[in-house]
Amino acid sequence: MKRILVTGGAGFVGSHLCERLLNEGNEVICLDNYFTGSKQNIEHLMDHHYFELVRHDIINPYMIEVDEIYNLACPASPVHYQYNPIKTIKTSVMGAINMLGLAKRVGAKILQASTSEVYGDPSVHPQPESYWGNVNPIGLRSCYDEGKRCAETLFMDYHKQNEVDVKIIRIFNTYGPRMHPQDGRVVSNFIMQALKGDDITIFGEGTQTRSFQFVDDLVEGMIRMMSSRDGFVGPVNIGNPVEFTMLELAQHVIALTNSKSKIIHLPLPQDDPMQRQPNIDLAKKELNDWEPNVHLKEGLGKTIAYFDELIKANKA
Ligand code: NAD
Ligand code: UDP
Q1: What pLDDT digit, counting tens, does each position of 125-169 carry?
Q2: Annotated catalytic, 158?
Q3: CA distances from 107 to 26, 60, 150 (A)
Q4: What pLDDT, on a 0 to 100 scale, did the predictor assign at position 243?
């Protein structure tokens, strides 16, 4: 049995990861400050004998004896990370320093949840890990993009200078049950709008693309990365390479919910990337032929069912 710390464990991705790690027979310590996560996301784990919940902010040091650390604490949706940009960058940078310091002291292996945002608005398509990105250092997204870039630098430097056993994954757009209904991300927005019969808000023409990964595929990739061969540090892209325009996504959501909602167009936010698609060759090679298995329609179906229940229970 391993003892595993999951920072940001009460968030969307973290809650699924905690669940999977517990199911595999590990002891899990879930650390969160509940900025965007909630106890509701993990309430089904509370009675588990090997589950522990800690309210803590990772901008402050935290001490515990663990074998592995998954560092997920950081708001992920543009609405949430732009709410308090200084706090966002502190979480990424000071949080990384604190968790790397902990890993160094106790000899734990540590995985960083980095992001496709490190590629910014990419001029190379699809994006391989070798691409250095096209990031605005002073824009609305910079607190998140540059915070995550700096965290990657810290992970590599702790690895090179202090031999900390690090693993870095770059996560591309991920969706699924337990996304925050008001997080402003496109999948949750479109589903909530469709279920409520509100207008579906497409920003810009809707020709920008994203590739959407269902959360179970991400969790599988995270666990494989944590147990990947010694010396394989990454960064490695974890995402679904099947690309859709936002217009296509809206049409799928309308069809799957039988909604009468109309599509409307709103202005495109500043620095909104035009396209985003992972090259996953490295993940396939290093992570035992890992690739996403869940098709968009299947994943959307499960996510729609989740939001439908939230609305019916007056929780959204
Ligand atoms: P989320 O907002 O649901 O989860 C983040 C969790 O971290 C929340 O529970 C929040 O309360 C917690 N948190 C935030 N700041 C904290 C702090 N200072 N101290 C302690 N806890 C803190 O987001 P998510 O979608 O679950 O994302 C999880 C991780 O994956 C993030 O690091 C994010 O950058 C990364 N990621 C996610 C996506 C995606 O599409 N979901 C894409 C790329 C990267
Ligand atoms: N988007 C949209 N309508 C919405 C929310 C988002 O058209 O209600 C667009 C947004 O402009 C972006 C894409 O959907 O081009 C993905 O946005 P999201 O915030 O989900 O993720 P990110 O931009 O970080 O990939």
Answers
A1: 999 999 999 999 999 999 999 999 999 999 999 999 999 999 999
A2: no
A3: 18, 19, 22
A4: 92
Task: Tell me the pTM.
Answer: 0.96
All structural domains of the chain: 3-177+214-240+278-293 (3.40.50.720)
Place of tokens 């099947």: 242
Q: To test ligand 2's pocket by mutation, which of 185, 189, 213, 254 has the most ligand atoms within 8 angstroms of CB?
A: 185
- How many angstroms is it from 265 CA to the middle of ligand 2? 12
> Ligand 1 centre and the CA of 73: distance in Å?
5
Q: How far apart are CA 66 and CA 63, in angstroms?
A: 9
Pairwise CA distance, residues 256 & 200, whole Å: 14
What pLDDT does 271 receive?
82
Question: Is residue 53 within 8 Å of 46, Cβ to Cβ?
Answer: yes
Which residue owns the Cα nearest ligand 1 atom 17? 57
